[in-house]
Amino acid sequence: MIKMPQSVYDEIVAHALKDTPIEACGYLAGINGEVKYAIPMKNTDASNEHFSFDPQEQFDAFKKTQKEGLRLISVYHSHPETPARPSEEDIRLAYDPNVSYVIVSLAGETPDMKSFIIKNKTVEKEEIEII
Amino acid sequence: MKLTINGDTKELKDGISLPELLIIENVEQPDMVSVQINDEFIRQDEHTNVVLKDGDEINFLYFMGGGA
After folding, report:
1. Do residues B21 and B47 lie in contact, with contact meaning Cβ atoms separated by under 8 Å?
2. Eight-class DSSP state of B51
3. Which tens digits make up the pLDDT trace of B2-35?
4. Where along chain B do its domains lie?
5. What is the pLDDT of residues A41-52, one digit of tens each?
6. ipTM attached to this prediction
């Protein structure tokens, strides 16, 4: 389970709505399964079907959270036109076993956010508790 | 020798290479990580040439991307 402040939930949704039709993406910084804040990242693919992080920006986020005693516990990205479930590409590219993967879909009438653990190409849904 | 790996200080045998360290750290696909040593990026084609030294600070992060 991942605990997420309502403000962070709202921020992720706002980021997704702002960037659509491009996929929005970012890290979630936190500790012990509790999100403290979101770190919006540039989608270097600038695509409605793909996202990639910039490595330098990744290290900047990593070092910032390290200094604060936090970790990068999740990665989020939006699906502007498809459901909140990991795509084949999401699963294939989920190399980091140490994070959960949050997806916010804008395909329906209202945004839909779900979180997943993806390890060894196996997907397991993770509950999001809004705090 | 002491190395700081993603923020954690660890004691490892002298003279290990970067590829050996990534194996120790259970990185299954080293070509999918970006590595910085002492804040300098290490190009993928340079990994095999890097021998780590006492006090090195190594950070590695996985490629992050996906689809829809």
Report:
1. no
2. B
3. 999 999 999 999 999 999 999 999 998 999 999 9
4. 2-62
5. 999 999 999 999
6. 0.88
- Closest partner residue to B65 (CB to CB) among A56, A88, A93 is A93
A46: which 2 tokens? 């600038």
| The pair of three-digit structure tokens given for residue A121, joined into one six-digit string | 């190409």
Closest-CA residue to A95 (of B58, B25, B64): B64
CA torsion angle for B8, B14, B17, B18 (degrees, to 10)?
A: 10
Query: CB A58 to CB B59 under 8 A?
Result: no
What gap in Å lies between CA B68 and CA A50, rounded to an integer? Answer: 6
Q: Which of A28, A58, A119, A123 to mutate to test the interface with B (most CBs of B within 10 A)?
A: A58
Q: How far apart are the C-alpha atoms of A49 and A51, rounded to whole Å?
A: 7
CATH superfamily for B2-62 is Beta-grasp domain (3.10.20.30)
